[in-house]
Design brief:
Layout: E1 8-12, H1 17-28, E2 32-37, H2 40-54, E3 58-62, H3 63-69, E4 72-75, H4 79-87, E5 97-100, E6 105-108, E7 111-114, H5 122-129, E8 134-137, H6 144-148, E9 157-163, H7 166-177, E10 182-188, H8 193-210
Parallel strand pairs: 1-2, 1-4, 2-3, 4-5, 5-8, 9-10
Antiparallel strand pairs: 6-7, 8-9
Helix pairs in contact: 1-2, 4-5
């Protein structure tokens, strides 16, 4: 298994629920975490909150500094800001492993549904905008509520990790594994990210119907 203990993980869009939740769990596991945001002031405020909850090492800064100083970067941006933000961070993310967890979803009276993405998926859009980075896709189906609830000591789910770079997907799987109860499972090439992102709409529908925080488990692996 890949040793990730010495990594600094940057969370772009780290003031949102998903980014903040993963930051809490990674900081609890002893990783150094950088929270990025459009507003450095807001990032610093949330980083202090995460540090207090997790007892770990967390700093806040703007997205550009977060991308520059991180060893590996998680993209937890709102879909509406995805392309514009990543387009401006190409230099800072050059040569780095990038994990895209963005789900392009719409919501109407019938509930959540997957949006069409010109490149095929959010992860493939990231790959197109960051040609010098090693783009992966993961952490799409993790409940932000569960992540933020530190009374939940065992997070019962698998994280599907997609990508075309074996070394990169192994490292991302290891980042999943440091969260107690979570297991990183290789889920295929990046071209298959669309259906993984889209499945989030089904998970949200399940959670709404059953008032749960459901995750995904892969059997016989």
């Amino acid at each position: 298994m890949v040793d990730v203990g010495n990594l600094t993980v940057g969370v772009l869009g780290g003031t949102g629920a998903q980014g903040k939740g993963l930051a809490i769990r990674w900081a609890q596991a002893g990783l150094r975490v950088l929270l990025g945001s459009r507003s450095a002031e807001r990032a610093e405020q949330v980083a202090q909150e995460v540090a207090e909850v997790s007892g770990g090492s967390v700093r806040g800064c703007d997205n550009a500094r977060c991308a520059s100083e991180a060893d590996v970067a998680l993209v937890a941006l709102p879909w509406e800001a995805h392309a514009e933000t990543l387009r401006g961070l190409r230099a800072e993310l050059s040569g780095k492993i990038v994990i895209d967890c963005v789900n392009p979803l719409g919501f109407d009276g019938k509930g959540p549904y997957a949006l069409e993405v010109e490149e095929g998926s959010a992860a493939q859009q990231a790959e197109a905008l960051l040609p010098d980075s090693r783009v992966t896709a993961a952490f799409h189906h993790v409940s932000a509520v569960t992540l933020a609830d530190t009374s939940v000591s065992h997070v019962d789910l698998d994280v599907l990790v997609l990508g075309d770079d074996r070394e990169a997907t192994d490292l991302v799987r290891a980042l999943a594994d440091v969260i107690p109860g979570v297991r990183g499972v290789y889920g295929g090439r990046l071209r298959n990210a669309h259906q993984v992102e889209a499945l989030t709409a089904n998970v949200i529908a399940i959670n709404r119907r059953y008032k749960a925080h459901a995750g995904i488990r892969v059997t016989d692996v």
